[in-house]
């Protein structure tokens, strides 16, 4: 366990943030689908670590990036951290996603900030395919621009139709068409 020094903590939009830590060990070992446990040093009352999916890593600056949404006291405090502050990080943890074969064109399906967990796998895939992203509203659509920058065809559906196709669900039959 080593401290992760914050390099950047950026508001993506609304309550969604991207935080980048300097942590050479995690950056060197992490694969898509793994996570880190984060403990904020300024919240002594919260002894338990919180798990966050690893969004990206960079060998160039030994960084590991996490995307999160402010939903409570812990993530609110996390959103206030500045470059130079640090958190205790434990990871990479979990079994990563299966690596995509070089001759496979991938299709990724995610909802909201769940797309953060797949990004590293998508980035490392030799061929680029489709990202199918669902969200409640346009305000909850994040990271599709990062997938598009990699070469993915981004297809979006929102529950209210404010962006992309409107998601239509028949809750009685359990059928959902997007």
Structure notes:
The protein is of the alpha+beta class. It has two domains: 2-93, Translation factors (Elongation Factor Tu (Ef-tu), domain 3, Beta Barrel); 107-177, Rossmann fold (3-Layer(aba) Sandwich). Helix content is 17%, strand content 42%. The chain has four helices and twelve strands. It has helices at 24-29, 73-79, 115-124, 144-150; strands spanning 2-13, 16-22, 35-40, 50-58, 63-69, 86-93, 107-111, 130-135, 153-158, 165-166, 168-170, 175-177. The strands form three sheets. A six-stranded antiparallel beta barrel has the order 1-2-5-4-3-6. Strands 7-8-9-10 form a four-stranded parallel beta sheet. Helix 4 (144-150) links the parallel strand 8 and strand 9. The longest helix is centred in the C-terminal third of the chain and has 10 residues, at 115-124. The chain is globular and about 45 Å long.
**Oligomeric form:** single chain
Helix/strand class: alpha+beta
Spell the H/E element sequence: EEHEEEHEEHEHEEEE
Indicate the overall shape: globular
The portion of residues forming beta strands comes to 35-45%
Identify low-pLDDT runs: none
Strand order of the largest sheet: 1-2-5-4-3-6
The count of domains is: 2
Rg over C-alpha atoms, rounded to the nearest angstrom: 17 Å
CATH topology-level name of the largest domain: Elongation Factor Tu (Ef-tu), domain 3
Could you say what the CATH architecture of the largest domain is? Beta Barrel
Count, helices: 4
Q: Which CATH class of the largest domain?
A: Mainly Beta
Task: Work out the number of β strands.
Answer: 12
Summarize the amount of helix as a percent range. 10-25%
- CATH-level-4 superfamily name of the largest domain: Translation factors
In round numbers, the mean pLDDT is 89
Instruction: Please give the largest β-sheet.
Output: 6 strands, antiparallel, barrel
How far is the N terminus from the C terminus? 43 Å
